[in-house]
Amino acid sequence: MREWFENEGFWRELYPVLFDEARFARAAAEVGKILRLARRRQGAVLDLCCGPGRHSIELARRGFNVTGVDRTAFLLNKAKRFARKARVKVEFVLSDMRDFVRPGTFDLALCLWTSFGYFDNKAEDFRVLENVFRSLKSRGVLVVDVFGKERLAKDFQGTTSQRLPNSSLFVQQHEIFDEWSRIRNEWILIRGNRARTFRFHHTMYSGQELKNLLRRAGFVDVKLYGDLDGQAYGADARRLVAVARKAGAAHAS
4-148+205-246 falls under which CATH superfamily? Predict the structure, then answer.
């Protein structure tokens, strides 16, 4: 059976919700914060699950050599058009993050906006981290940004709704399952008298769980933050941001 994220219709229908103008407008500030956390000013960047390329394009504007990877052709086509419009060069690759590996190629790797934890088989999350570890150069850095399990436990709401700028109604229903390790989501998009329902799920990680997984994959100096500003990962954390480093050859264990 195909997994939910392999359905391009999901991304086509929800594109206006997931990638509105405000989210694109935030890309420049987000990239600046990511680079400060990662302590990187130049080099080759891997943007995993790059989607329509909002971070890839901003990194290219700043002079980085960027490779954006996504498994959804619809989103990559959007990214290519945006890159042409911005007059920047980005290599966009159609590939599943479980398969993409380029040993010793990148100085920085990104997996942002809860693009980590999609898979039915949790072992495949670890496989992704192993791929990234292999793809990074010595002293390369990985930045992972997800919605942390601690925040979800604190603020969990079974049902939420919002009115979108185009007057559509967006309803979200959530259910925790698999011993508090996963969340099942049902999103309902109502436009006029038409409703579309989308169901998907993903694995949630606590700070310690994500840190342990990164260490198992070989990363060192793993630091956790509560947002891209570098705030502490504590009770008021809005996100779970992990910054993990690959040891230099002289310091590898």
Answer: Vaccinia Virus protein VP39 (3.40.50.150)
DSSP assignment of 179-246, as one string? TTTEEEEEEEEEETTEEEEEEEEEE---HHHHHHHHHHTT-EEEEEESSTT--BSSTT-SSEEEEEEP
Task: Give SS3 for 106.
Answer: strand
CA–CA dist 45, 140 (Å, integer)? 10
The model's pTM is: 0.95
The answer to whether 104 and 94 have CB atoms below 8 angstroms apart is no
CA–CA separation, 179 vs 206, rounded Å?
Answer: 13
Q: What is the location of CATH 2.20.25 in the chain?
A: 151-202
Q: What is the pLDDT of residues 99-121, one digit of tens each?
A: 999 999 999 999 999 999 999 99
Q: What's the rounded Cα separation, in Å, for the pair 23 and 130?
A: 30
Q: And the tokens for 239? A: 């996100």
Question: What are the C-alpha distances in Å from 164 to residues 158, 168, 194, 197?
Answer: 20, 5, 15, 16
